Amino acid sequence: MGSWPPEVKGTTSRFKRPLGKYKIIKRANCNNCGLCVKLCPCGVYKFIGKKVMPLREYRCIGFSCEGSEHYCVAQCPEKALMVIKNPTIEALGDYRWTSDLILSTWYQAETGNPPDYMEYKIGNSGGGFDRLRFSFEFENQNFSLKEDVSTTIDLNRRNDGRPQVTISVPWYGGGMSFGSVSLTTMLARAKACMEWNTFTCTGEGGYPEALIPYKDHVITQVATGLFGVREETIKRARIVEFKYAQGAKPGLGGHLLGDKVTPDVARMRESV
User: Under a CB-based contact definition with an 8 Å cutoff, are residues 253 and 228 in contact?
Assistant: First the structure.
């Protein structure tokens, strides 16, 4: 186990052209003076050689910047810039999952921070089942916040002779199967759980061999489809999770969208 708490590091985007809420139109009369590069607090613009390009267009906060000294459209000496709402956004999402909610969820996954200029909490539903309410009445509690509070949990407390398993935090990662998510996502979850000294679960899509270095922190799932379930995958896991009922999967396992069934996923699920 590494240092505690684990260090959080940002990563570069995995996408060449991430989708943003706004589009920046750069007219031909731009003289590439670079003023927008200096002004923009979001780092939207960047020099490529001697040309200025809005390479990080997805970071643009659009009309929220209007009226400030950073607003590139108003400050441009050549009036060569225009900001519009990305027309692609109009086709993204629905009434419940609005385009703002989808974009902001992606943005938080990429950066770790919620975007202030988008509705990232409840969409148009007013909350519904997705709103959680917590009431913390610290004034009625007889303990000091300066005291160290242990968050460790013993998972096997029956003293039945099986190995004792203790995790350092009161949570573990639920099942997300190979195919429904990428191997990159599974590895990221496994690495994070190793740092936090907890577990991630493979879900029902099999146990990719790339997870073996993190096997002490991986739960393997055995579900109705038996995708990729083998004796060796069960033996290498410290915990085996059995999923014997799920309404949408009557004995056949979960079905993937065709575009997600790559050759590796098909081999793992023994469908080729």
Answer: no
For residue 55, give the DSSP letter.
T
Among 64, 48, 52, 58, smallest CA distance to 23 is for 58
DSSP 96-112: SS-HHHHHHHHHHHHHS
Residue type, 144: S
Supply 10's token pair.
């940002």
125 Cβ neighbours under 8 A, 6+ residues apart: 96
Q: How many residues does the chain have?
A: 272
CB 271 within 8 A of CB 179: no
Looking at residue 35, its amino acid is L
Joined tokens for residue 76: 């441009």
In the chain, ranges of CATH 3.30.70.20 domains: 22-90
Q: Where are the alpha helices (DSSP H) in the chain?
A: 35-39, 72-75, 99-111, 183-196, 231-235, 263-268
The list of the chain residues with pLDDT below 50 reads 1, 129
180 by DSSP, 3-state: which? coil
**pLDDT tens digits for 12-32?**
666 667 888 999 999 999 999
For residue 193, the one-letter residue type is C
Range 22-90 classified under CATH 3.40.50.10860:
no
Where does residue 4 rank: exposed (0-12), middle (13-18), buried (19+ CB within 10 A)?
A: exposed
Give dist(CA 82, CA 223) in Å, integer. Answer: 53
pTM of the predicted protein model: 0.53
Whole-angstrom distance, CA of residue 256 vs CA of residue 86: 30
The distance from CA 119 to its chain's CA centroid, rounded to whole angstroms, is 17
End-to-end CA distance of the chain: 39
